[in-house]
Amino acid sequence: MTTADSFALLAPWLITMAPVGELRRDHAVVVRGERIEAILPAHELATRYPAIATLNLPDQVLLPGLINMHTHSAMTLLRGLADDLPLMTWLHEHIWPAEQRWMGHEYVSDGVRLACLEYLRGGITCFNDSYFFPDVAAEVTRAAGMRAVMGAPVINFPTPWAADMDGYFSRAMELHEQCRNDALIEMSFAPHAPYSVSDAAFVRMRDLAAQHDLRIHLHLLETAGEIADSVGEFGMPPLQRLQQLGLLNEQLIAVHMTAINDADIELLAETGVHVVHCPESNLKLASGFCPVWKLQQAGVNVAVGTDGAASNNDLDLLGELRTATLLAKGVSGDPQAVPAASALAMITINAAQALNMADRIGSIEPGKQADFCSIDLSDPDTQPVHEIFSHLVYATSRQQVRNVWVAGQQLLRDRQPLRLDIDQINQASSKWQQRIGAARA
Ligand SMILES: [Zn+2]
């Protein structure tokens, strides 16, 4: 049976990630509306769906849409603004002053649109954002047709987004109300970091998160310096402080986690905290190394994110995954650490689990949302094709991403965005280049 809103994708290689590592040769994925209806061998398509519109994806591997687990999308406008500095100098002397000056509707809207274009062209269908004006970011993302979790910021000092703690919480709950029935956008709490958020604010968001079943998306243990500072100010390290405050559970998405020991890893595994690894941002700011392999062996769910373009400086999740995988081997001293298929899980199904969205995204299975990307392997740079997972992790560039769908809607066709206008986005970026540049001159 066929209706106007159904179609089939036919690919020589299909990675389902259900289970992790599953690869099917010459299969079709049938989509109806926003969902996946069926997966079947290509030769059965004509009999089971005789009149269905079919798109052939020759030389392409079809896989679940990639999920970028830690982003500050609007900060794409600050790409390359201040490099080669330590985290605190970078934040206090460059990033926060620029944000105080430019933050607002136009800045967030232009920055998120630029990020969405980069995400889509890199195969990313969903991102976990943490930034000011998440309501504006949600509007732009919705118009782009993408999926996201927008983190409502919580931080101890006033910003153009909120004047005080009550302001941060009331704006967060307004965002929650706006996202309640949204098919593509969800919200979370995004407290900046333990050193910039009070105990009272953590307790308040813990209770609201429990009541409304929300994630808490937090920068945690980005540098070893955070531990000594926390002991000085709160009498204990950040992880123990969060444990006392009742924040360590499966609702917490802890980003970075470079300064952790074996006891911390055990605590994370026991409490079900999800860890997001951002290797390139950590390398660039010389923040330290997240022990990914040890975490995974202890049973901790680990996903990967690019962080913002101001500290990376790109939003290339495939590139980030390659760095993460290579670094995991270097840090653990074990070449068998994080094999390619399980590496790919860190930007698909593991990420979906961390977001509490594994019932909808992260793998290609009937009933799930039709979020996919297809990657062309005909390029000589990925020939010959002996092993697909190895290619995706170690050899493929994001320029090989050809097509992207979110909820059954095609958003990228042969590398061309269908809803975003590249010329308009470039014009907006040059406007900000001049504006920000003139202010710094
Ligand atoms: Zn970050």
In the CATH classification, which architecture of the largest domain applies?
A: Alpha-Beta Barrel
Oligomer: single chain
Q: Give Rg in angstroms.
A: 21 Å
Number of helical regions: 16
What is the name of the CATH class of the largest domain? Alpha Beta
Topology:
Blueprint: E1 6-15, E2 23-32, E3 35-41, H1 42-48, E4 53-56, E5 60-64, E6 66-71, H2 87-102, H3 105-121, E7 124-130, H4 134-144, E8 147-154, H5 165-179, E9 185-191, H6 199-212, E10 216-220, H7 225-234, H8 238-244, E11 252-256, H9 262-271, E12 274-277, H10 279-284, H11 292-297, E13 302-304, H12 317-332, H13 340-345, H14 349-354, E14 372-376, H15 388-394, E15 401-406, E16 409-413, E17 416-417, H16 422-440
Parallel strand pairs: 1-4, 1-5, 6-7, 7-8, 8-9, 10-11, 11-12, 12-13
Antiparallel strand pairs: 1-2, 2-3, 5-14, 14-15, 15-16, 16-17
Helix pairs in contact: 3-4, 3-16
Bound molecules: zinc ion.
Write up what this structure looks like.
The chain has 441 residues and is an alpha/beta fold. The protein has two domains: 106 residues, Urease, subunit C, domain 1 (Roll), CATH 2.30.40; 289 residues, Metal-dependent hydrolases (TIM Barrel). The protein has 16 helices and 17 strands. The strands form three sheets. Strands 1, 2, 3, 4, 5, 14, 15, 16 and 17 form a nine-stranded mixed β-sheet that branches. The protein has a four-stranded parallel β-sheet with strand order 6-7-8-9. It has a four-stranded parallel β-sheet with strand order 10-11-12-13. The radius of gyration is 21 Å and the shape is globular. The chain starts with 5 loop residues before the first strand and ends with a helix. The chain binds zinc ion. Zinc ion binds next to loops.
